[in-house]
Amino acid sequence: MSVLYILRHGQTEYNLQHRVQGHCDSPLTPLGVEQAHAAARWIADQGVRFDRMCTSPLGRAVSTLEVVREELMARGEKSLPPVEPLDALMERSYGPFEGGLASDVPAELWDPGESLVPFGGEGSVALRRRIVRAMTEVVDAPGVETALAVCHGSATLQFKKAWESLARCPQDVPLGNCCVLVYEHERSSGQFFCERIVNQPL
Fold first, then answer.
1. Is 190 left (phi over 0), alpha (psi -120 to 50) or beta?
2. What does pLDDT average to in each consecutive run of 10 residues of the chain (202 residues)?
3. Is there a catalytic annotation at residue 184?
4. Is position 18 annotated as part of the catalytic site?
5. From the annotation, which residues make up the binding site?
6. Catalytic option among 71, 91, 98, 122
7. pTM score
8. Residues in the annotated binding site for substrate
9. List of domains in the chain
10. What is the pLDDT of residue 63?
């Protein structure tokens, strides 16, 4: 078994303004930075050491990982693996709705099904397939026993839904900014088993 830690990015300016991000981006708020510090403190308190650190290339995810690394090093971590940006960890595209108000999206924001496809957005079936493949690649790499992937809300939700039937902890949990999801991964079957979902108390 290998272990995958999925971390949603910290709060952003668009989160505060209830705007759609998707492939577009906005910076972390001061609270978002503190959420990333809190997530890193929780990770350090568990005694976790990562063999691999991957992130969506979008700025809010990269910035979150930078804060996490800074906090881990401040808490005594001497050697961290390099940062690996992976396009496959990006959030779904919301097409023409990106940057606009979330209330203007003609479907549920995080799980719109296939409603966005006619507008040029990414459907949930394609997103789930993409994110499962990406997370599997992250944790299946040679020599990797424990990996971190910094990701996004809708993408993380689709990964969680893909494996809910095998989960070992309650799944009816909100995926707040900088929540941490912990999965055991069985390489022989390719399956993921959710062990914990931890939201930051901020």
1. left
2. 98 98 98 98 97 99 99 94 99 98 94 96 98 98 98 99 98 98 98 98 87
3. no
4. no
5. 8-15, 60, 91-94
6. 91
7. 0.97
8. 8-15, 60, 91-94
9. 2-198 (3.40.50.1240)
10. 99
